[in-house]
Every structure is written in structure tokens, then in C-alpha cells.
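Input sequence (75 aa), recorded before submission:
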Amino acid sequence: MESTKVLDAKGLACPMPIVKTKKAMNDLATGEVLEIHATDKGAKNDLTAWATSGGHELIKHEEENDVFKFWIKKG
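Predicted structure, C-alpha cell format:
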């Protein structure tokens, strides 16, 4: 998956992955993709809900070696 920017939020507890994601999204143009790496188990629900409520699109998410990876396209 092609991403414009990668955000490393590993080791951060809620709500920091969302806070960092929101800040990183502000630096992107509409249509660009942010890739987020997180270890907080709540990140899956949090980022999914945040993307939807913010008008963004969660393109894909996967788990690899206890790291959750998300690709969100800026709306």
C-alpha cells in the first residue's frame, strides 16, 4: 500500500495515537494516505471511528507482530 507519510505511534496509549494521527493528517493534502503503526489494542476501534467521523477513509488495516497498521486516506 502506497502511503504519503508514516506515523510511528508504537508504545503510545490512548488517546495519543489519535492525537498524533490528527496532527499528522493536518500536514497532508486531500487524497493523500497516512500509514499509522500502533501497539495500543484500542487503536483499531479508535482510529476506525475517528476516520469515519472526520470524513476520512480507512483503506486498510492489518496486524503484524503485535503492531497494528492502518492506512487512512484524507477526505
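Checked by second reader. The mean pLDDT is 96.
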